[in-house]
Amino acid sequence: MMKKLNYLVNWGKNKETAWSGTNYSLYKALCNHYDVKDINLKGNRWIIAFLHKVLQIEVMSIDYYRRLLLRKRLQEISGNTFQFSEVLNDSVNRKTYLYLDNSVSYVNYLRNQKPEIFAVSSFQSTDSKLFEKREREQNEYMRTCSGVFTMGRWLSDWLVQQGLPADHIYPVGGGTNVDTKLIAPQEKNHNKILFVGKDFKRKGGFITYEAFKLLREKGKNVELFVIGPKKNPIKNPIESYHFIGQIPFSEEAKYYNMCDIFCMPSYFEAYGLVFVEALIFGLPCIGRNCYEMPYFIQDGNSPEHVNDATGFLLDKDDPHELASLMLRLLNEDSFSRNVISRRQQYIHDFSWDTVAERIAQVIG
After folding, report:
1. Residue 210 Cα to chain centre, angstroms
2. pLDDT of 163-220, one tens digit each?
3. Averaged over 86-92, what is the pLDDT?
4. In this predicted structure, what is the pLDDT of residue 44?
5. What is the mean pLDDT of residues 258-272?
6. Is the pLDDT of residue 241 over 80?
7. Which of 195, 324, 330, 354 is most deeply buried (CB count within 10 A of its CB)?
8. Long-range contacts of the stretch 237-246 (C-beta < 8 A, 24+)
9. Taking Cα atoms as reference points, which of 106, 140, 133 lies closest to residue 121?
């Protein structure tokens, strides 16, 4: 008989697309290990609407009031409880676990120490005093709960550096739902660069374009394909720039198969499963040398990865350096061979089934 697990999550309007499919994919994977009780955390929409529209309460504050409403309603829940927001705390009859891709403490760190990154982090409009209170609440929860699961190893390291107990912070990763039947690489011309990201500025889209433009100015026959933004972010683009916009992943696969390399030097990236998708399709990658990107990409400039490099990590905001890395990645076949040789490892390590197994080993 399977053990029971309470699964607390706000499904939103569409269960299968909540948090880009993360909530539902992990839910299904955990069902292979537990008798999962799905508890929808959606708060009273009339109260939330009143707080927002009438009292003009900021979004994160609405989340705070939602949690207060839910805590009162859910206090009697017992047993192992998995949640995406620290709604319930441990008690004598309940163990609680949290799954995060980022922390409030790190957002506050960016606000105070790295304003240039905070300015493109998607948290620019948040209330600083409210976030300070949220940081204290979240840190207190993480000190006393039964376990914190992080998507990224960088976040696990960060939380430990902040003084949180290392013995119950677990980097378990995240999963991707790539349909391997879509992998059908075309003959490569060693000239096509792919960028995928809705938030063009935060994802490093402009420096990617500038590096591509430098290569064109040097007479290199390179092409740049941009997927993600609703509107073309580049005014008067040069020749061989292709704006694709927002398309379903089944259509994105065409470009993963057609292109030679993937480039997305994000300024802030809580995890970045798009890198895993690119690697599964066989594309060497260029990312920023921070967050989870050094864990995804074996850097071709590192002595440790002379024989198994899968891409490059950008250390500074320099389009000339990025253009040089693009050119090397396009011209040296060893990178793509290394990536393709790891395909089955990527598929296994970054599947939701594998993530669920790691979680189950902790919860028991």
Report:
1. 25
2. 999 999 999 999 998 899 999 988 899 999 999 999 999 999 999 999 999 999 999 9
3. 89
4. 45
5. 97
6. yes
7. 195
8. 237/209, 238/213, 240/216, 241/209, 241/212, 246/198
9. 106
Query: Is 90 exceeded by the pLDDT of residue 4?
Result: yes
Tokens coding 314: 């950008």
213 vs 323: CA distance, rounded Å:
9
Percent residues over pLDDT 70 in the chain: 91
Predicted confidence (pLDDT) at residue 318 exceeds the cutoff of 90: yes
Residue-wise pLDDT tens digits, 217-229: 999 999 999 999 9
Q: Is the pLDDT of residue 45 over 50?
A: no
Q: Mind listing the pLDDT tens digit for each residue in 163-173? A: 999 999 999 99
The encoded tokens of residue 130 equal: 């409210």
- For residues 186 and 260, is the Cβ–Cβ distance under 8 A? no
Going 351 to 356 to 357 to 362, the CA torsion angle's sign is: positive
User: How high is the pLDDT of residue 73?
Assistant: 65
Residue 60 in tokens: 């994160």
Residue 210 tokens, joined? 């500038």
